Queue: 2 jobs
Job 1
Amino acid sequence: MEPVLALVVGGLYAAAIYMILRRSIVKLVIGLLLLSNAANLLIFTVSGLTREAPPLISAGLDAPVTPMADPLPQALILTAIVISFGVLAFAVVLINRAWHVVQAEDMDQMTGTDT
Amino acid sequence: MMLTAVLSGFVLAALAPWLFRGLGARTGWVLALLPAALLAWFASFVPSVAGGEVHVLQHAWVPSLGLQLSFLVDGLSLLFALLISLIGTFIVIYGGGYLAGHRDLPRFYVLILSFMASMLGLVLSNNLITLFVFWELTSITSYLLIGFNHEDKEARRCALQGLLVTVTGGLALLVGLVMMGLIAGSFELSEILASGELFRDHALYMPILLLVLAGAFTKSAQVPFHFWLPNAMAAPTPVSAYLHSATMVKAGVYLMARLNPTMGGTEAWFLILGLVGALTMLTGVWMAYRSTGIKRVLAYSTVMALGTLTMLIGMGGEKAAMAAVTFLLAHALYKGALFMVAGAIDHETGTKDLEQLGGLRRKMPVTAVVAVVAGLSLAGLPPLFGFVAKELLLEAVLARPGPGWILAGLVVLSSMLVVAVAAIVVLKPFFGALRETPRHPHEAPPSMLLGPAILASLGLGFGLLPWLAGQGLLAAAASAVYGHPVNISLSLWHGVNLPLILSALILIAGILLYFKWPRLRDWFNGPVALDQYGPEALYYRFTGALSNFAGWQTRVLQNGYMRNYLLTILLTTVAVVGYTLFSRLGWGWLPSGELDVRFYELVVAGGIIVAAVGAAVMRSKLAAVAAMGVVGFAVALIYVLFSAPDLGITQVLVETLTVILLVLALFKLPNFSRLSSRMSRLRDVTVGVAFGGLMAALMFSTLGVQFEPSISAWFLESAYTEAQGRNVVNVILVDFRALDTLGEIYVLALAAIGVYAMMKFRSQPAEGRS
Amino acid sequence: MSSYSLILRTAARFLLPLLLMFSVFLLLRGHDLPGGGFIAGLVASCAFVVYLFAFDVAPVRRMLRLDPRSMVGVGLLLAALSGVPAVFMGDAFFTGLWLELELPRVGEIKLSTPLVFDIGVYLVVLGSVMAIVMALAEGEE
């Protein structure tokens, strides 16, 4: 499954980059979202995929007896998801404010610093 | 003890503003107790150093790294330390009088004391690196002091010029010093001084010499770097007297003198130092004769003195070493006094222009006496110490075989002009008829008379009793410069010999030059190529070109279009990483073997790609956001399918909130309009696909590669036994790596505060912009 | 106010307590099964956001009692303080400590510093999300 997900990540990156390069700031935000999904999925895939073995130690056992999914990348990605939500909120509000001040959605009209 | 002595200046500098609040106008007198105490303490070294002893004092700094602060007290460094603390004492007192009532007087104390400490550190360091650090500290404090009147644009410009010239030299010096340290295998001066042959025969001798001299020449204002020094006169006069005459500008001279036993004695040393020194000497005195501002005249005559010192060090030999240290002491005494007199004149009359001054001896009698005594020393007349120094200078130059005659001619020529300059500085303002000045002059306050009076009297005292200075301290200092014990006794009267005859000649010619001054000055001030094509013009052309270049490259690189930055970054990444990937692996990264895939997984994976492409091409905002949501939920499904239930749940929740957020914040914004052309869309698709392809290729190449053993096995095994948790992901988050999580929730909190601030504290929208 | 849908209001009124209880459940069991501070905080946020859509900002603010910004502060403080007790026990900052209580009928209860930390995370997540959403919702009016 890893090669398939590698292609999916590549596709996500391609779409994200395309969107980030657009002049519309709303598209930029969507690009950012795609980018963070792509990065999370990349870490998840590269660290190895395991089916039906979540890193939960069964009741009554002190340590796992069968192979389990790697918990470390999961912990990393979990915080990454929450933080990217915070950053996204910041970006979205920034855009919202920028739009209210500049009344323009086109980033090419936001090159000055004088507004 | 030595460490305390050097650093005490910094400590007192930090306390000075508070002391000022309590002491007011008396602050200067109180602060001067520190340099005075230092002077007394350094003086206690004189007997043993005069006896030929060299003290190396070490303090453990970072003992675990073998780093230590070490200080070297020999004749040379002691001479400098005494001068710094002696003149420093009077400058601190004098500054209080000169800047009385100035808004920034406390800042003056802070800076001048910091400078004093840095300068002491410079001359006493026994380590090349600490020497360099103190060297740069003096440059920085000098910059701040020249720009003391920071609201004056001219002062700022001059300060920056001095800084740029000296730190550029300092940079070269650093390279030179590091090379020296690497060759000697030690950065301790005491060890480097003992390994002279090693340097003189080394293949890198010439580069090191040039680098070190670049530092020394810029600092000591040698031609062609001399132009910053007269401009540094924008500083308040006590600063000019202290930094730009008596001490800091002599740091370069100190360095050359210090390294003379190591680097000196070669043909290159003699040629470079002799030539540059002689040229600086003549340039300085000629420019001094041309100028009319009293401080500029003194500044250029300082340039002349610095050139003379460089030349003497370059000449080498016992006599030249003795002449150098004698001249250095004499110059520091009379020039310090004259600068302070100039400051008093400026302070009392409100002008620095010699043309507007005259007859002040009736109004300022004590100042006039001091000025005459110091001026006679500058002119080199008996029975002052300046005379002793000049005689020795002539003797040393005449004693040098071969080119000595040429140098002697140049020295005589410059000495004639110096006599004229001394007369201009002393006679013009104090004698003749009283002239109208912007302010009504009175005698200067005691704080401004004490320093020059004592310095001038010292010049007289050492002149009458030259053995007092010569036998002990100066001989020890000359020994340090020469590298071997020097035994030359100074005396006022040598009998009728060639130097004395020359001195008489110089005096007559100098007086003639003084009376012809107004005519000759105008003649000298005609159109001169040096002003248009000289080093200072070059400096302005260079800095101008530099800022033009900076402006041009900023316009090109920082063009304000984010996609241009991104395209640069992305294409560079694709090219560099892609090249590396293909050159190392060829097509070897392509996956091979059986694909372990289940049908429903393929459906989810395909769904992600379709939704992502959809989000990219949708024309409607809501549709794009919905497609985004599909991507997010499908990714969550992947997490769940591959044993990450926590991730799956988090992703679903965050995705929900994200959609809500986007709807809330972007709902009112208009729908997408086609902003970019077909060509640019095509270009961006290409870049996106190239980058996506690269990422996929990189992932293919890393699948199944494990460089380091994973630590996850430990987490799995210890989660329950050590942390009593069965959900290993949660255990990592809240226990094993709790500190990381703490940092992450701080980021989240910051984002929330940022959002809140942007929404609540906002300015009114600008009108009339579409 | 009439523009708010009746169905949404009814649903929100029932969903809020349910979801909040669920979030506390997720928080407490998070150490052993899927859940934990992040997830529970997000669930609670969702509950309040649904309520906000149904009823407007002011009722939500009243119901929260604590200003979301203060909630963020309290959460950060709790999370940071949870590392402190270990220092007094001679261990490194953030070393987990457990207190096992045997209660009649209820059975064994484990109180621990990681749990305090997780409650801190829960409050920060809930406070941050609510601060953002409420600021936006108020700003759009």
Job 2
Amino acid sequence: MDGSSLKSAQLLELMRQHLATDAGKELTKKVGLVYQLNIAPKKIGVDEEIFVVDLKKGEVTKGPYQGKPDATFSFTDNDFIGIATGKTNPQIAFIRGAIKIKGSINAAQKFTPDIFPKPAKL
Amino acid sequence: MALRHLVTGQNNCTPDGASSSNPLNALANAFLGQSSKAQSIKELPGSVSVPSTSDFSTPAPISNIPGAENEFKQDQRPLARGADFIRGGPANDWIESFRPPGVPQLGVEAQFRDFEQIYNNTGTTFQPPLDGPPQRVLSGVLHSFLTSGPAGVPFQPLPVPAALGLSESDKQCIRDRSCIMARHIFSDQPEEYIQAQVNTLLHSLDIDNRMRGPMHGHYPELQEYWNQSQSSMGPAPMHNAADKWITEFDKQNNNPENWANSFEQQYGPNGWASEFEQHQSQMAMGPMGGANMGNLAAMEQSRMLAQTLASNNDPKFQNSKFFQFVSKMSRGELIIEDNQVKEGSASQSSGWADEFQTQYNANANSWADQFEHEELSHGADKWVSEFSSQHNQGALNENWVDEFSKLNVTDEWAEEFSGGGFGESSADPWVDEFQEHMSSFKQSSGTSRGVYVFSENNPYVGHPNPMQEGQELFRKGLLSEAVLALEAEVLKNPDNAEGWRLLGVTHAENDDDQQAIAAMMRALEANPTNLEILLALGVSHTNELEQGEALRYLSRWLQNHPKYGGLVPPQSTDSPYGPDVVRLFNEAAQMSPEDADVHIVLGVLYNLSREYDKAIASFKTALQLKPQDYSLWNKLGATQANSIQSADAILAYQQALDLKPNYVRAWANMGISYANQGLYEDSIRYYVRAVAMNPKADNAWQYLRISLSNASRADMIAACDARNLDALQKEFPL
């Protein structure tokens, strides 16, 4: 996650650490899916950075997934932050064209705000 | 008569300027006291060079009300404004749309003459002639009704010749739409007043108002939503409400074409959409030129989209509803949405907003600003809300997309569209084009940040010393009250850096970083080198995960420090490099290890670079120097929480809350810590406490909702969505 100027990278770093906690382990048990996130600074598909949120192993890594993720999301930095913090409804974001999804729709539907830890504020 | 009231009534309402007992006028005066924009507009050549035909000697109080300014100018120069007026605002078009069937549409020239006649004939009385063709009578009456809004004087019943020849459906239409319009015109007035006004109007026109009430007849669904939006304090649930709304909307519009058709019926195929556009262009060339450029650009963009779509030769596509829809949108609807999306990114002036709404608005005539403004304070009075129950700011630009996606689900293109959304089949140029357009919306909504949104009906406006009051309230920990008092102060003294700064601090403690940033930016304008302001901006941007911005402000902190400024190399620091800044601060810390502030900034910087252990060490050092600083305890706690030491974090938050029991941010952070540990039931109690203290804490509401769903308390989600504090506090006492 280092070296990325995306806001999402900060959230994903928090996610990475979160997955090591008891609550995080609970989450991997509950979800058990692998998501690949293609996050673009401004426009979907342009200058994307790729992250993998592996809720099978409980890892967050940078770079494409080796293998086939259960679902791949493409969105912009702001939209991902919006979804992860509960500001944006993923379904509406999808209808709006703010998310592109590849892969299993069932897996995609488990990608909800509550799997992400929330950043505390200074 | 109504226009006469516009002049004299204003004077009566404001006998002595800003200290008026009329809060609306006081507010407007306070706004305009600081609004250099409004003043410069008057000085622009376009408006000055026009010869005044008016002998009124009291233009000042009128031009103090932005909405009224237009009205007045119309009277001042009937010739110059007449044409604008005819083609002008949607409000006027609204009047025109009541043209009874059978009355032939007069050409623009003819209408022009009509109005010229009206204004010339009536001379000083300004009473629209109430004879002649029914259309003109109707226009006159409705126009009086409209002007009574900005004027702040009750609409006076006008004697109208009995036979207007209105059909039942016309009456129905007038009845319904005057109700809606009245809400906008009198949006500052109580419900009874609005109804009384509408009744007066309807009575004047001899329309039976049996179906009295907020909305009538065939809009029961809208009425329901209207009421909902009135009762809920703010953003309603995206999820449920959206679904519900869609269902209801669908019910009403079971034929997907209905919506579009009725739109066309009401406004004509080239209805007010194009008039609105025209008006916008005129406005852009007129006095408001500069301010309007942003809006024009947006329109240009939507026109380009329409053109791109039109250039597709595929006849199937040309006939598709999507295309028709987009072109329609690009002419009118989309522009409005555009305004909305571009909340305040420039002070765009929209025609009808000018007509009757600007009295609330501080330095922007922007419709969007207005919307956001209302949104935050007492739900939405705007017509957009009549269509939507999604109040979330982030979701504003989704409304029409929802409508449109739902409306057209049965259509072929919708499948294409979702296909494009799903897979890689977005090869069709229009899909890309469309998405590009959408993302440009999002970007512009991102730039809407930084515009301060004032509360409405602020009881402290007119207070003799709001600054002192605000400081007192802040000290007592009554943060939401302090916000109001300080807003009154900065309305009164827009250059009071300390007022803005304290307002920003209060928002930050109230867990609203966006408002905090907006206030701090104003503070920084007034005092560009204040260290506290720079630090506060650095912290708030850090919270919003905006690293670059945060780093810039923190670097400026060092630059402007009397003692450490010399450490900074003279080159510009437009995009400082994190490690460099950290190094400089470490040097500063070596210079004076007793300076708690340096350690605080270092702690924030290490948060940015996610070196949480170092951040924690810095904050702890600072706390040894400043153990009573509750915000420092909260910073320590938040850093610990973000490095997954939630148990420690809770101890630190507790220290902060012992020192400042009403520290909303710390309560919300407590909730976050419990939620991140999977202790959702506990987190709910803290979130509820936070939102109870600041019902505008949107983040906390969102997190509360997530925790409710995680804790399998779906039964309380409705209460959360309705922002029903009583129910939540009862269910989850702390």
